[in-house]
Amino acid sequence: MADEGDILTDINPDANNGGNGADNQPQVGLISQYVKDLSVENPNAPKCYQWNEQPQLDVQFNIGSDAVGDDVHEVTLKITCTAKTSQGNLYLIDLAYCGLVGIRNLPDEHAHAFLFAEAPRLLFPFARAVIADASRDAGFPPLMLDPMDFSALYQQQLAARAQQDKGEGANPPAGNA
């Protein structure tokens, strides 16, 4: 059967098929994920539990990435949730949820897209659960954040940056030097 090219029994692969033993194929993977920082403030407890006004929610996201090794990056998904009424703040939840991402043999533009679009997409469901548990543990209904399209947000950021760069190039600085 090995003579017929059966891949199940052919244990001597052809060296001309790219099997040179070198580690040169693109590899990306999520190594670990963890809560790096979590702060829950409930500044007006217990009187806030008597308030009947519907709170105004403000949710802010920020994504960062830092190289921690040659092939390892720490991606941070920072989420800040604030619930306010006219009577005062109900709660403030500040979460930094991180993932260690291993990237090898990937072009920079693809690595950047993975770090700022795909990795946050992978981390978000877990960060969402931490936020829901934190608001519930503070004595409020769980805050269930809606799913987000991090890829679309990434594309919007790239387009905005390109537009900004194009605008800066069109108007050279003026003045007397």
In helices, the fraction of residues equals 25-40%
User: How many helical elements?
Assistant: 2
Q: Could you describe the largest sheet, including whether it forms a barrel?
A: 4 strands, antiparallel
Q: Under the CATH scheme, which architecture of the domain at 26-143 would be assigned?
A: Roll
State the shape.
Answer: elongated
What's the gyration radius in Å?
A: 24 Å
The number of E-state strands comes to 4
**Series of H and E elements:** EEEEHH
Looking at CATH, which topology of the domain at 26-143 would you report? Bacterial Protein-export protein SecB
Please give the order of strands in the largest beta sheet: 1-4-3-2
> What is the distance, rounded to the nearest whole angstrom, between the alpha carbons of the first and last residues?
80 Å
Which structural class best describes the helix and strand composition?
Answer: alpha+beta
CATH superfamily of the domain at 26-143: SecB-like
Query: Strand fraction band?
Result: 25-35%
Mean pLDDT reading: 87
- As an assembly, this protein is single chain
Q: Return the CATH class of the domain at 26-143.
A: Alpha Beta
The residue ranges in which pLDDT falls below 50 over 5 or more consecutive positions are 172-177
Characterization of this structure:
There is one protein chain. The chain has 177 residues and is an alpha+beta fold. It has 2 helices and 4 strands, in the order E-E-E-E-H-H. Strands 1-4-3-2 form a 4-stranded antiparallel sheet. Residues 172-177 have low confidence and may be disordered.
